[in-house]
Design a protein that fits this description.
Layout: E1 2-6, H1 10-21, E2 25-30, E3 46-47, H2 58-67, E4 75-77, H3 83-94, H4 98-126, E5 137-141, H5 144-159, E6 165-168, H6 169-175, E7 188-192, E8 196-197, H7 200-215, E9 218-221, E10 225-230, E11 235-240, E12 243-245, E13 249-252, H8 258-263, E14 272-282, E15 291-294, E16 299-304, E17 307-316, H9 325-338, E18 348-356, E19 363-366, E20 372-376, H10 382-397
Parallel strand pairs: 1-2, 1-13, 2-9, 4-17, 5-15, 13-20
Antiparallel strand pairs: 3-8, 5-7, 6-7, 10-11, 11-12, 14-17, 14-18, 15-16, 16-17, 19-20
Helix pairs in contact: 1-7, 1-10, 4-10
The structure holds flavin-adenine dinucleotide.
Length: about 425
Amino acid sequence: MRILILGAGITGITAAYTLASRGHEVEVVEQEPSAAMQTTFSNGGQLSYSHAQPWANPAVFKKVFGWMLRDDAPLVLRPKADLAMIRWMMHFLLQCQPARADENCERMLRIALYSRKKMHEIVAQTNIEFDYRQQGILHIFSDQKSLDGAIKHAKFQEKLGCHEQILSRQECLAKEPSLQQAHKQIIGGIYSDSDESGDAHLFTQRLAQYCEQHLGVRFSYGVTVNKLHGSKQRITSIATSQGEMRADAYVLALGSYSTLLAKQIDIHLPIYPMKGYSITLPAWKDAPEVSITDDEKKVVFSRLGERVRAAGTAEFAGYNTAIRPVRIEQIFSSFRDLFPHVPTNGADEWACIRPQTPDGPPLVGRTPCANLYLHTGHGTLGWTHGAGTAYLLADIIDQRATEIRLAGYELSRYRKAG
Ligand SMILES: Cc1cc2nc3c(=O)[nH]c(=O)nc-3n(C[C@H](O)[C@H](O)[C@H](O)COP(=O)(O)OP(=O)(O)OC[C@H]3O[C@@H](n4cnc5c(N)ncnc54)[C@H](O)[C@@H]3O)c2cc1C
C-alpha cells in the first residue's frame, strides 16, 4: 500500500519505520527542512514508562482553579473566547473523577509498557545512538501529602504490573548524589529503574535517516500540507505547497496541528495545544546520572550526553509558541533549586506545544474516514509512547490483531468526535 505520513516528529518517523518495515511504500511530508524540529526538538528526554498518571486526576482538580491565573503555577490556563479550549477544558475536568483517572492511568501504563518493549526492539534493530541512558527516573517530593498520594498511586500501578521503589530522603541522595547540593527540601522519592532517557531529536533524525537508507522511505521536507481533499468518508488527495499528492492511505502525525487539518473534513479531534518550556546547559562535573522529576514543580531533568536538559510546565495559550520570560523563569528557578552551584547563563531556551488530549492517552488508528489514520495526541509523553503506538498503528492498518488491547486509544472513545 502507498502511505503518506503527514509530519516528521517522533510520531511520524516511528510510523514510517513500522509501516516501511512491513513492506509498505511510505513517503513522509514535513514542512520543516528536517525531522523533529518542532515538539520533538528539545523535550525533557524522559522515557518515563512508569509515569502513567494523566494530568487529569483528582489531585490536579483540587489545584487547577488556584493555579489558573498564577504565572508561576505548573499548569496555567488563560481562559479566552476559544470554543475549542472551553470544550477541551470541560472534558478535562470530567476526566479528573477518580474512576476516570484510574481507567486513563491503566491505558497510559498499558501503552507505556508496550512502548518500552518496542523501543528496545527498535534500538536493537537499528543501532541508533541518541545519548540513551538506562539509569532510571527518580521522582522527588518536597511535601508529605504529595508523597503519600504518589505512594498510593504507585501501589495502584504495582497491581497493573509496574514496579517502583519508594525511597527515603537519604536513599534519594544516595541514588543521585548531585542532589546533595539542592536547596530544595527533598523528603523522599519514588524511583523506577526501568525508566530511561535520551535525546528525542537525535533519535528521530537518525531513525528518519535509517528509514531512508534501509527501508526506502521517501522524505518530502519543506513541504506544507494545506488541505485534505475528499470527504469525511474518503480522502482523494492532499494539497501541499508543492502541489497535489496521492496515496492509498494517509497518517495524520502533525502534532497539535492535526486538529486543524482533520477539521477540514469534519473530523473533530479533542486535542488542544499545551505549551511547555525547556532549557539546555552543558553538563558539569557531577551532573546528574539519573533522570529526575521534581514533582512539585512538574519539571524534569535529563542528562543527554554532554548536556543537561530541564523541561516542563503546561500553559494553555493556543498555538502561540513564543517564549514568555515569566514562564521560562519557572524552569530556571527549578533548576537553581536543585543545582544552585551551577551557572545557567548561556542556556539554550525553547518553547513548544504538546498535542494534548483531555484524558491523556494518545489517538491511534481509525477515523470515520476510511483511508485516514491517526498517530497523534501524544501530549506530555510522545517520546515515551511513540514506539509502542507506531506498532499499534501498523497492526491496525494491516488489519492484524494488535499485541496489546486497543481499547482506549482510538478516536471512537470520544462519542461525539467524528
Ligand atoms: C517542554 C516539553 C517537554 C517534554 N518532555 C517530554 C518527556 O520528557 N518525555 C516524553 O515522553 N515526552 C515529552 N514531551 C512530549 C513530546 O515531546 C511530544 O509528545 C512529542 O514530541 C509529539 O510528537 P509529534 O510527532 O506528535 O509532534 P511534532 O514533533 O511537533 O511533529 C509534528 C510535525 O508535523 C509538522 N507539521 C505540522 N503542520 C504541518 C503541515 N501543515 N504541513 C507539514 N508539516 C506539518 C511539524 O513541522 C512537525 O515536525 C515534552 C514536550 C514538551 C513541549
